[in-house]
């Protein structure tokens, strides 16, 4: 049979059609899984970007809510599950991580918290301490500066931890396919792991923001005022005498420097005004601006006319 004659048979056409259907279904499943994996990160990305947008618009009340959540976490972590009693020493260590108390203040706060043995009693007291510290800090630096500090702490913490989260999720996605050998659906496992990691991300953001907000220091650069003598000299002149006008002497170039510049370039060596002898004309170079003031080079303006 010649090579240019096509094969036409119902069995061959059906076999090719079945193979094409299998290949297309395989690629369709791959694209579907890819979209499902991407949807998980898109939902997390929307939450983080929405939080950043709200922070850029306004930070009023955000830090206070984070501090309230951290107070509840501190009290719950310091509670002994066996005796149901509060470990005041551990609570004080964590509280110092949020508010940098001095040793004397630490002792005073600890003595004030020791009579309180239940979480219901400690949470309002610790919240009141943090609230008073926050108000005092805001009065110290000003409301506008406090909002800028909150915005800086929130954005820097979110950005840094979000980048680390993206790297961790990429590593998870590369190896999640191995879960299939254990008869587990990789997509389901990926959703569960990614959700757990995202919860840890939110908790880490709140944890670091609460422990940074009272430790940010404002550095102000104060410009020293000018002395009265300098201000008097810088003031406007009342007389227009020529003798009082300050002059800046322009030193003449040395003979060696002038000779070296002249040897290395066809352009004339720049001389200070009045240094040329009377009657001596400066020779124009081919690449110098033309004397007519057109802005063109001399070789492209009047030089061809003079040459002719």
Automatic annotation (TrEMBL):
Ranges where the SecA Wing/Scaffold domain occurs: 6-217
Cytoplasm as UniProt keyword: yes
Task: Identify the keywords attached in UniProt to this record, alphabetized.
Answer: Cytoplasm, Metal-binding, Zinc
Annotated coiled-coil positions are none
Question: Matching Pfam families, A to Z?
Answer: SEC-C, SecA_SW
Please name the GO terms of the biological process aspect recorded for this protein, alphabetically.
intracellular protein transport; protein import; protein targeting; protein transport by the Sec complex
Region annotated Disordered sits at 232-251, 261-298
Instruction: List the GO molecular function terms.
Output: ATP binding; metal ion binding
Q: Name any cofactors this protein relies on.
A: Zn(2+)
- List, alphabetically, the SUPFAM superfamilies matched: Helical scaffold and wing domains of SecA
Quote the cellular component terms of the Gene Ontology held in the record.
cell envelope Sec protein transport complex; cytosol; plasma membrane
Question: Could you identify this protein by its name?
Answer: SecA Wing/Scaffold domain-containing protein
């Amino acid at each position: 049979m010649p090579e240019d004659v096509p094969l036409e048979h119902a069995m061959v056409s059906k076999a090719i059609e079945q193979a094409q259907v299998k290949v297309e279904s395989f690629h369709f499943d791959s694209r579907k899984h890819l979209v499902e994996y991407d949807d998980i990160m898109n939902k997390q990305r929307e939450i983080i970007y929405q939080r950043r947008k709200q922070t850029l618009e306004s930070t009023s009340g955000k830090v206070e809510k984070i501090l309230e959540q951290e107070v509840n976490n501190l009290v719950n972590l310091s509670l002994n599950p066996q005796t149901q009693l509060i470990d005041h020493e551990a609570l004080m260590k964590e509280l110092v991580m949020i508010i940098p108390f001095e040793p004397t203040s630490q002792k005073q706060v600890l003595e004030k918290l020791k009579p309180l043995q239940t979480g219901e009693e400690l949470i309002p007291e610790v919240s009141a301490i943090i609230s008073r510290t926050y108000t005092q800090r805001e009065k110290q630096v000003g409301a506008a500066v406090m909002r800028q500090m909150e915005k800086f702490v929130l954005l820097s913490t979110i950005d840094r931890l979000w980048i680390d989260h993206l790297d961790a999720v990429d590593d998870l996605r590369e190896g999640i396919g191995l879960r299939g050998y254990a008869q587990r659906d990789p997509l389901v496992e990926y959703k569960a792991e990614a959700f757990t990691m995202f919860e840890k991300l939110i908790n880490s953001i709140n944890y670091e923001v609460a422990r940074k907000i009272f430790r940010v220091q404002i550095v102000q650069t104060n410009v020293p005022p000018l002395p009265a003598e300098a201000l008097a000299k810088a003031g406007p002149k009342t007389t227009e005498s020529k003798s009082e006008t300050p002059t800046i002497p322009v030193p003449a170039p040395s003979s060696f420097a002038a000779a070296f510049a002249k040897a290395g370039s066809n352009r004339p060596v720049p001389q200070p005004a009045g240094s040329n002898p009377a009657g001596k004309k400066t020779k124009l170079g081919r690449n110098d601006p033309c004397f007519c003031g057109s802005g063109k080079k001399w070789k492209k303006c009047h030089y061809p006319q003079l040459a002719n």
